[in-house]
Amino acid sequence: MNDHAESHADGTGGSGRRRFLKLAGLAAVGTTLATTGARAGAASLPQPTAAGAFAVPIEDVPHTRTWMAWPDSTAIWGGKLSGVQADIALIARTIAKYEPVVMCANSGGAARARSLCGSTVTVISSIPVDDCWMRDTGPVFRTDGAGGLDAVGLNFNGWGNKQTHARDALVAERIASYVGVPFTYADLVGEGGAVEQDGAGTLMATRSSLVNSNRNPGMTERQIEAAMCAAYGATKVIWFDGVRGQDITDDHVDATSRFLAPGQAVVQMPLSTDTDAYARDARQQYNILNASTTSGGAPMEVSRIQGPDYYKIRSTNRDFLASYANYYLCNGAVVSGQFGDTQADAAARATLARLYPDRVIEQLNIDRLGTGGGGIHCVTQQQPVR
């Protein structure tokens, strides 16, 4: 769940993003995870080793299934809930054309989830949820290249205790148990949308999201980097400054920059006339990646995907996320948003088709979900084949 929108009104963006979610259910926050360090009693992850080590693969590997979560809280979504549910169901049905989808729903919402998602999506009510952002709450699955699969939890704390998360804090561990794989909590607090991996030792992330006292108080950047590398089976982090305090995620990387392959990345670029904090952040990410190398020392090859004109998209909501880069890769397809700027939508489709020539490009109208500051990648979590 991310926030990379710009304001229609004045081009400055920022202050209004996802505020309506920040106000929801904060009384329950104190009963969940503390913001410091790893979950109490959890084993520390070993530093990765070269042979047979568990590591998070890049997302274009074959998947066993996609995990999603069904939102049913009017305290969080208010009158937007039914529209958001319709968008979640559309995403689930689309992915289910290519691979199995399992939707975690509360017992009171499971019937509606089944009705809207249809028979191609499996809905379970044994893993309760607070909200729909499975990228951030779900387990990060790892493989060892020899048929092994395990999972890591990132100690989700409601993006720095900004939203109720008593159920969401347990989703990662409960899914791992459901799948029947070993599970460990990482030695940092974060979210899946805050980290991008190339599957070959290199990560990218924003300091604003992770080197932040609302997640990891008292930890230095170096300590956080070591914990990330241990959790993901990586050896290098490419850091961006990000945008601090402007949205609920503190600027997740997966709304702007994505790995295509080891040594290859794509960045969603703003219009040349965009000058807000998120536009400056995107340009910085592009420049840093162009000057970076992989964990193995190879130069990065960086592609661009042009973002839309916020004056031409359908939504006029200033919390809106219009990120083509927040796409999801499933078996045989790329599932991305389209936002009503017809020229930019067509150009984004063409760019994705060029970047992923062997996959079907699915573009979906997810405008209701976008008003929550998130996109398709934010509400999905892949389980790779062993």
TrEMBL record:
Classification via PROSITE patterns: TAT (PS51318)
Signal peptide: none
Molecular functions (GO terms): agmatine deiminase activity; protein-arginine deiminase activity
Transmembrane segments: none
Coiled-coil regions listed in the entry: none
EC number: 3.5.3.12
SUPFAM superfamilies, A to Z: Pentein (SSF55909)
GO biological process, one term: putrescine biosynthetic process
Name of protein: Agmatine deiminase
